Amino acid sequence: MYQNCCKKCGSISLHTEVKGNNTGLYCDDCGAWIKWLGKDELRAFEYSKKNQVLAQMRDSTSEENQAISEYIKSISVPTGINVFDEKSIVKRLEEFVEFLGKTIDTEYNKFPLSTEDAIRKNSYCLALERDKRAIQNILNGHDFNYVEE
Length: 149
Fold this sequence. Notes:
Layout: E1 14-19, E2 22-27, E3 33-37, H1 39-56, H2 62-79, H3 83-86, H4 89-109, H5 115-139
């Protein structure tokens, strides 16, 4: 986990600001500059902030779940598409995982046109694979970013 603190006030509440081509780390409480961040440090800081937000999120109450279900039904009626009653969300997600797998396979079966196309292809497939793995983790009852040890 990325951890840094303010040398002035000791706060661990930090944020980043972009100044030209550089990204600085600043204290939320006193505004002091802490350091310039490299690419890896910036990535680690953003990842830790995202995880803090996820940890603060709570499960929805039964009333909130009911309100969401009623809203989904209400928007299905005017459009004439009632996909939420035909299949369960779990079934739809499983089908989406299969679709992602087929898309990845299709992309890798195409011959790259150039070095740049090969880089694009690998980046695209990596993103699809991560999405696929996140959905599978959710379906298996884990956090989206769960990694088996």
